[in-house]
Amino acid sequence: MKQAFHAIDRPLWRSRIEDEWRERRVVWLAGPRRLGKTTLVRSLADVDYFDCDLPSVRRDADDAEAFLRRHRGRRVVLDEIHRLADPSALLKIAADHFPDVHVLATGSSMLGASARFRDTLAGRKRTVRLLPVLHRELPAFGIGSPERRLLHGGLPEQLAAPRLPEKDFSEWTEAFWARDILELFSIGKRYSFLRFLELLWAQSGGLCELTSFTAACEASRQTLANYLDIFAATGVVHVLRPFATNPTREIVAMPKVYAFDTGFVCHARSIDSLRADDKGPLFEHLVLDELLFEAGAEEIRYWRDKQKHEIDFIWTPRGRSPVAIECKWRASRFDPTAMHSFATLHPKAAFWLVAEDRQSWTTRRHGSIEVTECGPAHLPELMRRHRRPTASGSRSTR
Prior knowledge:
Elements: H1 11-23, E1 26-30, H2 37-42, E2 48-51, H3 55-61, H4 64-69, E3 75-79, H5 87-97, E4 102-107, E5 125-129, H6 147-152, H7 156-160, H8 166-181, H9 190-202, E6 206-207, H10 214-217, H11 221-234, E7 237-240, E8 256-259, H12 262-268, H13 276-295, E9 300-304, E10 310-315, E11 323-328, H14 337-345, E12 350-355, E13 362-366, E14 369-374, H15 379-387
């Protein structure tokens, strides 16, 4: 049985799981390895926990119907479910035939990411995508300033390490290849696959033109496109698509790619202490995580026009105007030029500046636009306010 390295509570994520369990009886907790999935699921109240790494558990679950029958009326956690011979069959039987059994499945790869999952359970499950330690969770880890989070990353064990755990990043990558990739995907060239991942992490937050990586990775553009799909499916990168309604003036196809964790960005860039210029780009990742938690990946994009004006994130809540979001370590570094360009094409948009040194929110006028300035702690409330129905009665849904 797996043991948690410490007992830091993450009530935010526990509540998210409970909320999703109320909507669907099958919930998939997805996310890269060592984010604390096992610690989290073992903190849930009144669950029967099974570690699918254990041969005895795999044998017990081979007969899915008999296994579920033994747990009628219970909440069952199947940790690392992709170790089972036919994980999707068990989840499908649970969803279709056992209305009194709630199942929470975890795994390092997302459901449907590999041939091991022959049924994606569309419409039968909810997915919770666990993220590294969020900015708002730092006080629970005894961390008052986010610099440590930027450098060490947000994997709980590495964040808590007294010194920068440089070897852990390499060991994590080897385990990712050996346990998540080789067991689930048909990848022929280890060097090309991991080299591409390392380069994406090193340029995290940049535009991703696949052709520019082919020589360094010794792989074709199509092969790299397939790898990128796997990286996104397994959660080791976030792929943001451009927001555009005017193809003649806006970028419409090229994605931006962010590493899932700042610790791996620093490792790929050989950063062992933060310089002033490092903090702003790394801070973008913390803001992105907050946006992903509140809105989900489908609603987060970026914007760039053909004059190379760029906005970090565009939040596109259904039924509401888009929100253009710029991230700065210090608010004094903000330049509204790109937002003015965005406003000419999207005059109904809202404009937010998220800065680490903002302890409250305020609204400032920059020429023809109003910009709401806030710190990361204020994002959840701002997003909830933006989602609220307007006076005309229109309503948005998540």
